[in-house]
Design goal:
The structure holds 2 protein chains of 2 kinds. In chain A, 0% of the residues lie in helices and 50% in strands. The relative contact order of chain A is 0.33. By secondary structure, chain A is an all-beta fold. Chain B is an all-beta fold. In chain B, strands 2, 5, 6, 10, 11 and 12 form a 6-stranded mixed beta sheet that branches. Chain B has a 4-stranded antiparallel beta sheet with strand order 3-9-8-7, with no helix packed on it. In chain B, strand 5 and strand 6 form a beta hairpin. Chain B is globular, with a radius of gyration of 14 Å. Classes of the chains: A mainly beta, B mainly beta. The interface between A and B is medium-sized, with 25 and 23 residues.
Chain lengths: 113, 117
C-alpha cells in the first residue's frame, strides 16, 4: 500500500491563478479530509468527505472547492489563489472503524505570491 | 464547540530530562477521541496515540506516557529521558465520536520541543 499520497510537494502560484492539489489513498478508506497548517495555529479542517459523492465544509472552507467522485481520490481546488492561502496542506483518510486512526499524507507546501 | 488548548508554545530541555506537554480540551459530547501527533522537522505527521473518552487508564509506550483526566479535561503527554530525536512539534487533537463528525479533528496550536545534547 502506498498509503496517502499528495501531489505536488511544493507549488508556487501567483495571485489569481487556479490549481488543484491532488490526494489519493489506496486503503479503501471512506473518510477523507483536507487540513491547512499555519504557524502557531495547528491544523485546521478545510473540507471533509464521508464517502464518494458526499462532501462537507470544515472550519475554513472559503476559497476552496472539493469533490469526491471516487473512494480513492479527494482533490482540493483553489479557484483564484490569494496570498492568505499560503500554507502547508495535508490530506488525511480513515476507515469507519472504532479502532482505526487517521492517516496523513506528506503535505503540499503552497506559496501564493 | 470543540476546542483544544496547548498553552506551551515551546519547551527546551537538555537530553535525558523529562518533558511534559499539556493539553486541555473542551467538548459538549460525552463520547469523543483524543489524539497526539508528532511532527518532526521533516514535516510529516506521525500518529502517537488515540484515546477513547471512556478509557481513562493512563498509557505507557516506551519512553512515552499519557495521563488522561476527564475531571480536568486534560490529556497530557510526558517524554521520559528525552533524546535529540524527540525534537519536534507535538499536536494534541480532539474529535467527536458521532458518525458525521468522525474525521473532523480539532487540533491544538502545537508545542515545539527542543532537546539539546
Amino acid at each position: 500500500n502506498a498509503g496517502v499520497t499528495q501531489t505536488p510537494k511544493f507549488q508556487v502560484l501567483k495571485t489569481g491563478q487556479s490549481m488543484t492539489l491532488q490526494c489519493a489513498q489506496d486503503m479503501n478508506h471512506e473518510y477523507m479530509s483536507w487540513y491547512r497548517q499555519d504557524p502557531g495555529m495547528g491544523l485546521r479542517l478545510i473540507h471533509y468527505s464521508v464517502g464518494a459523492g458526499i462532501t462537507d465544509q470544515g472550519e475554513v472552507p472559503n476559497g476552496y472547492n472539493v469533490s469526491r467522485s471516487t473512494t480513492e481520490d479527494f482533490p482540493l481546488r483553489l479557484l483564484s489563489a490569494a496570498p492568505s492561502q499560503t500554507s502547508v496542506y495535508f490530506c488525511a483518510s480513515s476507515y469507519s472503524s472504532d479502532t482505526d486512526t487517521q492517516y496523513f499524507g506528506p503535505g503540499t507546501r503552497l506559496t501564493v505570491l | 464547540a470543540q476546542k483544544v488548548t496547548q498553552a506551551q508554545t515551546e519547551i527546551s530541555v537538555v537530553e535525558k530530562e523529562d518533558v511534559t506537554l499539556d493539553c486541555v480540551y473542551e467538548t459538549r459530547d460525552t463520547t469523543y477521541y483524543l489524539f497526539w501527533y508528532k511532527q518532526p522537522p521533516s514535516g510529516e505527521l506521525v500518529f502517537l496515540i488515540r484515546r477513547n473518552s471512556f478509557d481513562e487508564q493512563n498509557e505507557i509506550s516506551g519512553r512515552y506516557s499519557w495521563n488522561f483526566q476527564k475531571s480536568t479535561s486534560s490529556f497530557n503527554f510526558t517524554i521520559t529521558a528525552s533524546q535529540v530525536v524527540d525534537s519536534a512539534v507535538y499536536f494534541c487533537a480532539l474529535s467527536e465520536a458521532a458518525t458525521d463528525s468522525w474525521g473532523k479533528l480539532q487540533f491544538g496550536a502545537g508545542t515545539q520541543v527542543v532537546v539539546t545534547p
